[in-house]
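Appendix B, Record 12. Input sequence as logged:
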Amino acid sequence: MIDNAPQDRAYTYVLMENVRILVVDDDPIHCEFARVYLATPTAEVETAQNGEEGLQRLRREHFDLVVVDLDMPIMNGFQMIRAIRSDPALRHLPVVIVTGLEDMESIDRAYDEGATSFVTKPVNWRLLSYQLRYVLRAQKQAAAA
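Logged structural output:
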């Protein structure tokens, strides 16, 4: 088998399209990691500290995708998903859950509320970048149909 893939992939970006991502997590370290590992010359990453702040930003600004933790103060991720899905302007926004909760009840509940995808912490940021790229591509195809 011939492998034509570039040999040095450590310096390539996964998210190459113009995209704005909102990361909603009360952990400032996770938010900083998201900025470092997900941002590219064409992918902008913004953060919010809880679901209420994140929802306000989503209603004021345009984002192509939101990454949400489930376990947060003020408004948790489940409540945020529900609010997004009940808002006609936001209901089609992809919601990717990134959380430390990995029990079946949390997973099922997140999807029941309307999550698009689910990832557990600790995060493999490269793998998450590919998953976000896939979710964005699927969203574009669904919108075009």
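The chain has one domain: 19-144.
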